[in-house]
Amino acid sequence: MKGKIIKGIAGFYYVHVPEENTVYECKAKGIFRNQKVKPLVGDDVEIDTNDQPEGSGIIAVIRDRKNELVRPAVANVDQAMVIFAAAEPDPNLNLLDRFLIMMQKQKVNTIVCFNKKDIVAGKELALLMDTYRHCGYEVVCTSMLQKEGVAEVFELIKGKTTVLAGPSGVGKSSLINVIQPKANMETGNVSEKIKRGKHTTRHSELIFIENETYLMDTPGFSSLYINELEKEELKDYFIEFKEYENECRFIGCVHLNEPGCAVKEALKEEKISKIRYENYTVLYRELKEQKRY
Ligand SMILES: Nc1nc2c(ncn2[C@@H]2O[C@H](COP(=O)(O)OP(=O)(O)OP(=O)(O)O)[C@@H](O)[C@H]2O)c(=O)[nH]1
Ligand SMILES: [Mg+2]
Ligand SMILES: [Zn+2]
């Protein structure tokens, strides 16, 4: 039978078989372990249910993956939507930039969503949105509490498999519940004291929304290391630098200390966001340090 892995917990994989609209609890065939292939949420598989207890099966075949992400570890996604709360928890834009770089490196188109717009001033929100729109990203702004921006989100996810990612407590599971109330995902309060999420979602899970439309819920992350990237390449991931780069005095300018740098000039004129540039310098330094070991 053909199906799709919608969840994996402690060596068990839950495979949805659309033909019957049922879910089988499966183990993977030993051969995958020997070949060091780990089944992933999102995998299209074939399962064998002969001689198995009712509702159980064995994953016999994992079909070729369209793509495979490392963090979160999922397969066959069409795009990502990264969610940050506009407040509570305050958005960590350095973490957002790290995520955007990682996705771009993996060639996965990413939509940026700022949730909890109900608790911040319009001006603050506009600044966040402008910053990322200016870098070429599709940006939406929502309140899952007041169900605002939902139609816009739906338009963007329709007909696709979208992985939802972001820190804990930003409203990833809440978004799924608003779009598909039947999903009934568990959500958790943000801690009063430290204003951080409580890591309510523990496992990635694929949720069927409607024909051809899936959302993948994932556990919140609190840090991301950029690796497998040369420091000289980093600038290419800051697309807003592109239009100035040709004007830099030196070919291969990394826009840090070089004289006659057009990117730094644009920064001075506030044509490039200060926070984005700062994140660039932080990440550049980090990549430089990594190389020493
Ligand atoms: N004010 C406000 N609160 C929201 C909004 N969306 C979600 N919340 C609340 O934020 C808290 C965290 O929401 P979750 O959906 O559990 O967050 P999550 O991103 O799934 O978090 P993890 O599973 O821990 O990664 C819950 O108390 C939600 O009710 C919103 O738009 N506005
Ligand atoms: Mg969650
Ligand atoms: Zn430069």
Could you please describe the fold and organization of this structure?
- The chain is an alpha/beta fold.
- It folds into three domains: 2-64, Beta Barrel (OB fold (Dihydrolipoamide Acetyltransferase, E2P)), CATH 2.40.50.140; 69-217, Rossmann fold; 231-290, Probable gtpase engc, domain 3 (Ribonucleotide Reductase Protein R1, domain 1, Orthogonal Bundle).
- It has helices at 30-34, 93-105, 122-134, 150-157, 172-179, 242-245, 262-268, 274-290; strands spanning 2-9, 12-17, 22-28, 44-48, 56-62, 68-69, 74-75, 79-85, 110-115, 138-141, 161-165, 205-210, 213-217.
- The strands form three sheets. The chain has a six-stranded mixed sheet with strand order 10-9-8-11-13-12, with helices on both faces.
- Helix 2 crosses helix 8 (274-290).
- The mean pLDDT is 94.
- Bound molecules: guanosine-5'-triphosphate (GTP), magnesium ion and zinc ion.
- Zinc ion is lined by residues 248, 253, 255, 258, 261-263.
Q: Enumerate how many helices there are, as a single number.
A: 8
CATH architecture designation of the largest domain: 3-Layer(aba) Sandwich
Top-tier CATH class of the largest domain: Alpha Beta
Helix and strand string, N-terminal first? EEEHEEEEEHEHEHEHEEHHH
